[in-house]
Amino acid sequence: MLKKIKPKNARSKRALQKREPKTEENVKKAIFIRGSSTSQIVNEALSDLCKLKKPDAINFTKKNNTIHPFDNDTSLNFFCEKNDTSLFVVGSHSKKRPNNLTFIRMFDGQILDMVEVGIENAKSLSEFKTSKCAIGIKPLFLFVGDLFENSQVHKTFKNMLLDFYRGQSVKNINLSGLEHVISVTAIDSSSEQSSDTRAMPGIIYFRVYTTQFKKSGEKTPRIELEEMGPSYNFRIRRFKFANDDVYKLATKVPKVNKPKKIKNIDVNEMGDKIGRIHLGKQDLSKLQTRKMKGLKRIAEDYTEEDLESEELVPLTKKQKA
C-alpha cells in the first residue's frame, strides 16, 4: 500500500480532493493488464474490451510477472492507488487455465470481488467488416437467462459488466445516440461435456451489435442489429465474493442521493405510484340528487324540526290521491 500523502501546496491538495469520496461518483476507470504469460487470443480480447471502454480505460501492453489476483493482490493495490482506478481485467494463459480473463473490482484500495472466465470461440473486433460505434457512447445492455436471477456468480458477473461499461450518469438520453447493444446470454447446460474440466457448467455468450435505422414508412424508424464484434463464449472458472459487511459499505447510498419519501405515496412492485387520500366525514343528507317528482317530499315525510325551519308545500291533487 502507498503511504497517505499530505498535501504540500494547493495543487496537490486539489488532486487529493478529487480522490475523496463523493455523493456522485466519477466515471470508473479500468486497467487492462497482461499477466506473466498470455496468448494471442487474450491479447486481442484485452485490446477489444479496452476499445469498448474508452476513453476511460488504460491498456498495459507489457507483461507483469507479479500479477496473480487470487494469490497476491499487492500489485493490484499499488496500481489502484497510483492510477486512481477501481476496475481491472487481467489476462493470462497457462496449460491449466488457457485463454483466461479475470474481472476485478476494487473498493477503498482493496479487492472487493473477482470473477475468472475462460474464452472460447473468440472473434476479434477486426474480423467483423461492419460499421463501428463512436468512442464514449453509452451502450444498451441485454441480459438473457434465468441464471442472472438465480445464480450468485452470474449476478456478480452481470453487476461487474454494468460497472465496466455504464459510463457517465445522465438525466436525458438521445435515442439517436444509442449506437450499439451488448448482449449477454447465459445458458445452463449441465449435461454438456466441455474440455475445460475446471470451469462451471454452462456458457455465457458475449455479443456486441450496432443499431441500424431503416425506413419504416412511419415517423419511428425500424431498428435492425448488425454484429460489430468482439464475440466471445465465456465459461466461469474461479470467483471470489466480497464479505457482507464490506459489500454493504461499498453499496451504501448517501442520504443526499436518497429520494425523499412523500407521505401517503408508495410505489408497488410494478413501478406504479399509489397514493392514499384522506376525506372528511360526508353528510349524505345534503347530497344533491336528480330532481324528479317521485323524489319530492310530501307533508307526511316532514318532521317537527322541518316544520319549524321550512314552509310546507301544498299537496297537488295527484299526491292527495
TrEMBL record:
The molecular function GO annotations come to:
rRNA binding
The UniProt keywords, alphabetically, are:
Nucleus
Q: Does the keyword Nucleus apply?
A: yes
An example of a Gene Ontology cellular component annotation for this protein is:
nucleolus
Specify the superkingdom: Eukaryota
Please list the residue ranges that the record marks as compositionally biased, kind Basic residues. Answer: 1-16
Region called Disordered, residue ranges: 1-23
Cell compartment(s), UniProt: Nucleus, Nucleolus
Q: Where is the Brix domain?
A: 28-245
The record's Gene Ontology biological-process terms are: maturation of LSU-rRNA from tricistronic rRNA transcript (SSU-rRNA, 5.8S rRNA, LSU-rRNA); ribosomal large subunit assembly
What family is reported? Belongs to the RPF2 family.
What is the name of this protein? Ribosome production factor 2 homolog
Q: Which organism is it from?
A: Glomus cerebriforme
